[in-house]
Write a structure and sequence with these properties.
B: mainly beta; six-stranded mixed sheet; four-stranded antiparallel sheet
């Protein structure tokens, strides 16, 4: 499968714990995007990364959330001290270039549930 | 900034009937327009996109959409739906130097 791979598919955490979501982009893609989808809502942009760089994090909460895309390995979205409101589906997408006319390829998401 | 409106949150339709899912957008600059489909527990798949040229765009699975600049609309249509088309459909826009903005989605339910 050469698509975007996200793991885990489902993640359950208790309030106050940390959540780590992983995303491996399509082979050859160096642009990665994270989105959050709340129930009955569309996807909301969180952060855009290229290898080792955060390009745009305007959609990411200022506290507790961080993202990285190291030179080697998957992109990681990290949520510290999770709260009930963090429960959502988190989607990763990748693209070959940063051109607006290039579609983004989406993973199947990680569904995060906070107890 | 851009915004996308999908007026119909749910659309039930009988199998083999035609369907239109509405999408309107707001933007002060030119945008590219996309339709994505999301099946249960999956990510988004690209149905079609409008970049330039002919305003009627054909996509996968028999879907098509028409860009109407004066009405700032990009409605999605299919002449005859199948049970397998049951899914959530998202309209999205992106402008130069900006990020994707998605609509809230329309849940299409195809009834036997």
């Amino acid at each position: 499968n050469a698509g975007v791979m996200q793991n885990p598919r489902h993640l359950v955490r208790r309030r106050g714990q940390e959540a780590r979501l992983r995303c491996s982009p399509v082979k050859g893609h160096s642009h990665v995007y994270w989105y959050r989808q709340l129930p009955e809502e569309g996807l909301k942009f969180m952060v855009y990364l290229q290898k080792e760089n955060i390009i745009d994090e305007s959609g990411m909460p200022k506290e507790r959330f961080s993202a990285e895309f190291p030179k080697e390995g998957p992109s990681i979205l990290r949520i510290q001290q999770v709260v009930r409101g963090d429960s959502a589906a988190y989607f990763c997408a990748s693209s070959l270039t940063d051109r607006e006319d290039q579609p983004q390829h989406f993973g199947d998401g990680t569904r995060l549930s906070i107890l | 900034a851009q915004s996308v409106t999908q007026l119909d949150s749910q659309v039930p339709v009988f199998e083999e009937a035609p369907v239109e899912l509405r999408c309107n957008y707001s933007s002060s600059v030119s945008v590219y327009l996309f339709w994505y489909v999301q099946y249960p527990n999956q990510g988004l798949q690209l149905l079609l996109k409008y970049l330039s040229g002919s305003t009627l765009v054909k996509g996968i699975n028999g879907f098509e959409a028409e860009f109407n600049k004066s009405q700032t609309s990009f409605h999605l249509r299919k002449p005859s739906v199948h049970i397998s088309d049951t899914a959530e459909y998202f309209c999205a826009v992106i402008a130069y130097g900006q990020n994707f903005v998605f609509g809230p989605g329309t849940r299409l339910s195809v009834l036997p």
